[in-house]
Automatic annotation (TrEMBL):
Source organism of the structure: Streptomyces jeddahensis
Gene responsible for this protein: plaP_2
Keywords per UniProt: Membrane, Transmembrane, Transmembrane helix
Amino acid permease/ SLC12A domain segment(s): 33-476
Gene3D superfamilies registered for this protein in UniProt: Amino acid/polyamine transporter I (1.20.1740.10)
GO cellular component, one term: membrane
Signal peptide (from-to): none
Descriptive protein name: Low-affinity putrescine importer PlaP
GO terms (BP aspect): transmembrane transport
Listed transmembrane segments: 30-55, 61-81, 102-125, 137-156, 168-189, 201-225, 245-265, 285-316, 348-368, 380-403, 415-437, 449-469
Length: 489
């Protein structure tokens, strides 16, 4: 329930002293936020065909390997979450392990990274809705009103209570995964195009040059899974629910992605699927579900891709609001952004600011005549994705550094072996993504270079901000990412 102070003048009035709704979210609720941010249906229908066309029928293993890597990262990450109670998530972990300058750089990188991941997706919402309207009604609609309507809808969802958002995401997530399960059922019942095959797991089909590109796409498909710790202050028994939700999200995404990619390979056949994916990547899943389930299911899939994008936007919006809230409480961002609604228990001012910023960016791209998918989505989303991968790498490095300095009873596997292994694997993932950045953007080398340098540039600005704070506002600097005086409820 919402907790307010006695000074609140009336029910539902905004308050600077209201708090987040502690104890609102269970394991499943937090997992819904994380998995919804990944947008499984959109990732599968929109991106997996490209992975198949580049990596061949061994593509499912790429998703498994990405999932295993992030599960290894989660071992140290969730172990440290039992010791860090701050609402700052990544930047709090990194600060405690690597020091305040790196932590402040990470805080700025997290805010910009998550913001980029959300705002860019308004371009995807526009194109997905346009495709759906065209497929169902044969009509063309302009993209700007769709994006602006999405901004208002997501802004309202973030304004409401966190448990309201969890319920909405639960429904949407069940729907989008349900249509993929329906496709899988149709393919399995009919035995695929030429019978079911395990050839995708054979080393000869996995150890091919295209697997590097598949891994780049696969790591991008998990973006946002680490946001479980952002909801610590609103979780029930966070020392248990946060780790459980993290493992549940990573495990589900890794296995589900690999299974669905394998299923669509069976739908076309090992020999035919690579050609089909190359000729019509955007239509691969729609063709498969039309053949194995029916045209009505393809129409439903069109609609559910739109709702999948909406769910992803709401999940990222809520995560950004809580990062902004934490940084406002730190004093790094204006204190006004830390105001919480007394009835809904939501960081509503941060949400309004995020919605306004999104509108400015969307209108700017529209005024410049940009393409909503090729530019708004890809040019804004890609730096955000790279920023979050860099945050994961810094967090992995922070874990053994933190446990080396504090007294604890955790084992070496969790505090040393797993995080060091994750560091190596995540560094490899970043190299793969950067070296295949043209596959994500389709842009010129100049544009790609600019997109790649955004994340390190933001981090560098954060380091400069840390220096300025240490000199000009030493008390704020000294208190940055400090542990709360009382344990979170």
């Amino acid at each position: 329930m919402s907790v307010t102070t006695p000074e609140v003048p009336q029910e539902g009035a905004p308050s600077a002293t209201a708090t987040l709704r502690s104890g609102s979210l269970g394991t499943a609720d937090i997992a819904f936020f994380v998995v919804s941010a990944a947008a499984p249906l959109t990732v599968m229908a929109g991106v997996a065909p490209l992975a198949i066309s580049l990596g061949g029928i061994g593509a499912p293993v790429g998703y498994l390997l990405a999932g295993i890597t992030l599960a290894v990262f989660a071992v140290g990450f969730t172990t440290m979450s039992r010791h860090i109670r701050s609402g700052g998530a990544f930047y709090a972990f990194i600060t405690r392990g690597l020091g305040r300058p790196v932590g402040i750089g990470a805080a700025l990188l997290a805010l910009v990274g998550y913001t980029g991941m959300e705002i860019g997706v308004y371009g995807l919402l526009a194109t997905a809705t346009q495709d759906t309207v065209q497929a169902l009604f044969g009509a063309d609609v302009p993209w700007l009103p769709i994006s602006l309507a999405g901004l208002l809808l997501i802004g309202y969802g973030g304004y409401r209570s966190i448990d309201f958002g969890a319920k909405v995401l639960g429904v949407l997530l069940v729907a989008e995964t349900g249509i993929l399960v329906l496709l899988a059922g149709g393919v399995l019942v009919r035995g695929g195009a030429h019978g079911l095959s395990a050839a995708s797991l054979a080393p000869a089909h996995v150890l091919v040059p295209g697997t590097a590109a598949v891994l780049a796409f696969a790591f991008a498909a998990f973006t946002g899974f680490e946001s479980t710790v952002i909801y610590r202050r609103e979780a029930r028994a966070p020392e248990r629910t946060v780790p459980r939700a993290t493992y549940l999200a990573v495990g589900f995404l890794g296995l589900f992605y690999a299974f669905i990619v394998w299923v669509v390979i069976q739908a076309f056949g090992n020999e035919e699927v690579v050609r089909a994916a190359g000729e019509d990547p955007s239509g691969l899943f729609f063709t498969a579900i039309t053949v194995y389930v029916g045209g009505w299911a393809a129409d439903l899939m069109h609609v559910l891709i739109v709702t999948s994008v909406i769910a992803s936007l709401l999940a990222f919006h809520n995560a950004i609001n809580r990062y902004a809230l934490a940084l406002a409480e730190e004093g790094v961002l204006p204190r006004q952004l830390g105001r919480i609604h007394s009835r809904h228990g939501s960081p509503y001012v941060a949400g309004i600011a995020q919605t306004v910023l999104g509108a400015v960016v969307v209108l700017g791209f529209w005024a410049a005549g940009a393409d909503p998918y090729g530019q708004l989505l890809l040019w804004v989303n890609t730096p955000g994705m790279l920023g979050l991968l860099l945050l994961q790498l810094l967090a992995a490095v922070a874990v053994p550094c933190y446990f080396r300095r504090v007294r604890h009873q955790e084992g070496a596997l969790r505090t040393l072996v797993a995080p060091i292994t994750a560091t190596v694997l995540l560094a490899t993932a970043i190299v793969l993504v950067v070296s295949h950045i043209d596959l994500f953007t389709g842009a010129s080398p100049t544009v790609n270079t600019l997109l790649v340098v955004v994340a390190p540039a933001v981090f560098a600005v954060g380091l400069a901000l840390a220096w300025w704070l240490r000199v000009r506002r030493p008390q704020l600097y000294a208190d940055f990412a400090a542990e709360p005086a009382e344990p979170a409820e």
